[in-house]
């Protein structure tokens, strides 16, 4: 047996072996979908798709699921997860919006304006920001930013005004969005800078020769040419933002509350909970069947949105091939 | 070293020369001047944020990191002077890093080689590529919770252990290591694939012309010149593994101490639960149960040192590749 392995491989055998290994990745995806869907099925069969809607207090629904027995009645599966979905859309939306602006400006800065030493410095800086673990971001958030916001930005009167509904400690929308933006900006910046640097120099020079200043030339020609890459980068960053769990469970406040913009500026400090963070918070309750099914339903939702975003990024990148720019 | 060392820069490529002409800045329109200013401030701001994070963690870490912490195990105590050190989380982090990388790297390299060098049937290769993209886009927490569902199956009991009630616990170093390898896989795959793509056709053709088979060409010609790419990808994956928190919290149990199962020494350790630095930080932050910020800062400092070291290695490898390479390979993520 061993002697056979030591002999040089025939091409056919190598192809088959490597192909089998490659198929493991496809198998992983299939298994993931099957397992998550199967575990989430009770929630879908009892609530249909209406668990994505709003109604009642989510914290109370989850709380009552924890106390059900091994064979819960159908009513135990009652779930209306809109506050979580709203919280996810809100944080991810704002973070991607601000992150996109920052990373576009940074990419232009690196490619067009930065003096060469600074441009070289940006590579390790962005690599560092991208590789700081989310728990470290969360730690800085919960120990530095949350107390700062709680002590200096929220007045006592504002805390008093909502004391019967929520506690304003500083943990909430503002801190969540700020840290999430810092976390996803490096990914977008790296992708956009790569694409921008791969635009043929002559296109830019042509635009400058026609009388545009260098910045206008970049905006009118280079940025326009890499629009698909920008959309793809935003898609990947959105996927990252939606899936961020640990950091958001640390700094978003302890309540599945839906921040209300009718409250005025206080909305910035209102607590919220995202889908991914809720999974982390409730993962100890997996032994209760109703709660387990709900948690896997959240996972199914994340998986579905992740797939959709990957698909969208992939489709958005297709036009790039036409120009043979970086994809 | 071969002359055809492919260069890969894992994050971004700095263009060879800049185009800006600042001398004419005064003649620009107001709006353009504003955008120019914003671009500068965005770039500087990112540098400042990175510097602030490093300096802050270094200051806090050096303040609270007692060398004794590194060699004592954590223990449960309300009094912080008795709650022990971070020996177990460090061991756990290293174990998980080795396990995850050992699983992810061969699979990623084999997959990339198959997709680029063989890739027949075409539809299967496309499915594999799509799968890797999907894995890269799947949130860690979903991978974690999927792993829990898998490893709680009765037949996979050897990977963890049975609780006293008879159910399979599903949480162990093995389970976490296998799932965490999914996080590293796309990074190593992308680096290897891009390296393979950057190798010129004529190298392969020269080898075929000498009568070598495809697999011999891969082993004797392609893989040796891919070393830098594979190392970059594996190091990037290692960084992600070391920092991954969600999978550890769900699949490693995030217990205070590493608690090996009875039986064979090493295997028992791998089948048992434990903690890593990220889960230790989470537990000792105000958001966790321990609430000992000093210990959390000390652990975060050690974790950041590891991450910085890995980043330095990535930088070194890609610069070494740039010195030897003839072309610029690109790594998208």
How is this structure best described in words?
The complex is a heterodimer of chains A (327) and B (333). Chain A has 327 residues and is an all-alpha fold. In chain A, 72% of the residues lie in helices and 0% in strands. Chain A has helices at 2-6, 11-47, 58-66, 82-113, 116-131, 134-153, 156-161, 173-197, 201-209, 214-225, 227-243, 246-251, 275-282, 289-317, 320-323. In chain A, α2 crosses α14 (289-317), α5 packs across α8 (173-197) and α8 (173-197) runs antiparallel to α11 (227-243). In chain A, 53% of the residues are buried. Chain B has 333 residues and is an all-alpha fold. Chain B has one domain: MetI-like fold (Orthogonal Bundle). Chain B has helices at 30-64, 87-118, 122-137, 140-151, 173-198, 201-209, 214-225, 227-243, 246-251, 265-271, 277-284, 293-324, and strands at residues 7-9, 328-330. A two-stranded parallel ribbon of chain B has the order 1-2. In chain B, α4 crosses α5, α8 (227-243) packs antiparallel against α12 and α11 (277-284) packs antiparallel against α12. Chains A and B meet through α2, α4, α5, α6 and α8 of A and α1, α2, α3, α4 and α7 of B.
């Amino acid at each position: 047996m061993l002697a056979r392995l030591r002999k040089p491989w025939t091409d056919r055998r190598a192809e088959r072996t490597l192909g089998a290994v490659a198929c493991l990745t496809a198998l992983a995806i299939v298994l993931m979908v099957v397992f998550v869907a199967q575990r989430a099925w009770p929630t879908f069969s009892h609530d249909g798709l209406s668990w994505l809607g709003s109604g009642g207090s989510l914290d109370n629904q989850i709380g009552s699921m924890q106390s059900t027995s091994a064979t819960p009645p159908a009513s135990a599966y009652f779930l209306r997860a809109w506050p979580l979905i709203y919280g996810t859309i809100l944080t991810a939306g704002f973070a991607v919006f601000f992150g996109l602006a920052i990373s576009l400006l940074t990419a232009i800065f690196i490619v067009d304006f930065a003096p060469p030493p600074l441009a070289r410095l940006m590579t390790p800086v962005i690599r560092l920001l991208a590789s700081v673990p989310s728990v470290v971001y969360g730690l800085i958030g919960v120990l530095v930013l949350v107390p700062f916001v709680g002590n200096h930005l929220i007045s006592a009167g504002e805390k008093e005004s909502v004391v019967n509904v929520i506690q304003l400690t500083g943990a909430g929308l503002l801190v969540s969005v700020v840290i999430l933006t810092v976390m996803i900006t490096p990914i977008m910046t790296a992708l956009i800078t790569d694409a921008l640097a791969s635009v043929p120099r002559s296109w830019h020079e042509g635009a400058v020769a026609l009388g545009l200043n260098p910045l206008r030339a970049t905006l009118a020609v280079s940025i326009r040419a890499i629009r698909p890459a920008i959309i793809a980068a935003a898609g990947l960053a959105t996927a990252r933002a939606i899936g961020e769990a640990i950091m958001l469970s640390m700094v978003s406040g302890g309540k599945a509350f839906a921040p209300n913009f009718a409250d005025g500026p206080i909305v910035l400090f209102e607590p919220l909970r995202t889908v991914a963070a809720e999974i982390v918070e409730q993962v100890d309750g997996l032994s209760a069947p109703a709660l387990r099914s709900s948690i896997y339903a959240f996972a199914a939702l994340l998986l579905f949105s992740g797939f959709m975003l990957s698909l969208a990024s992939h489709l958005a990148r297709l036009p790039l091939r036409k120009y043979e720019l970086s994809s | 070293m071969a002359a055809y060392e492919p260069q890969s820069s894992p994050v971004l490529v700095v263009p060879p020369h800049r185009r800006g002409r600042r001398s004419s800045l005064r003649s620009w329109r107001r709006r353009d001047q504003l955008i120019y200013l914003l671009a500068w401030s965005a770039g500087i701001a990112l540098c400042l944020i990175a510097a602030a994070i490093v300096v802050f963690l270094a200051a806090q870490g050096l303040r609270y990191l007692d060398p004794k912490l590194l060699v004592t195990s954590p223990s449960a105590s309300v009094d912080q002077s008795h709650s022990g050190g971070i020996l177990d989380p460090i061991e756990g982090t290293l174990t998980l890093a080795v396990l995850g990388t050992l699983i992810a790297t061969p699979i990623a390299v084999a997959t990339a080689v198959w997709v680029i060098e063989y890739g027949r049937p075409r539809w299967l290769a496309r499915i594999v590529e799509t799968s890797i993209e999907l894995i890269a886009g799947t949130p860690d927490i979903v991978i974690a919770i999927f792993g829990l569902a898998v490893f709680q199956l009765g037949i996979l009991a050897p990977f963890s252990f049975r609780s006293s009630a008879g159910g399979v616990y599903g949480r162990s170093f093995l389970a976490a290591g296998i799932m965490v390898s999914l996080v590293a896989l796309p990074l190593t795959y992308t680096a290897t694939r891009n390296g393979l793509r950057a190798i010129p056709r004529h190298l392969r053709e020269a080898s075929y012309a000498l009568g070598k088979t495809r697999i011999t060409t891969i082993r004797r010609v392609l893989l040796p010149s891919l070393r830098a790419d594979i190392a970059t990808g594996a190091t990037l994956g290692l960084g992600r593994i070391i920092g991954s928190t969600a999978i550890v919290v769900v699949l490693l149990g995030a217990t205070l101490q590493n608690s090996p199962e009875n039986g064979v020494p090493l295997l028992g350790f791998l089948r048992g639960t434990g903690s890593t630095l990220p889960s230790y930080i989470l537990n000792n932050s105000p958001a966790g149960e321990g609430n000992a910020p000093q210990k959390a800062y000390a652990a975060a400092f050690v974790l950041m040192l590891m991450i910085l070291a890995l980043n330095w290695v990535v930088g070194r490898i890609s610069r070494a590749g740039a010195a030897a390479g003839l072309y610029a390979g690109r790594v998208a993520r």
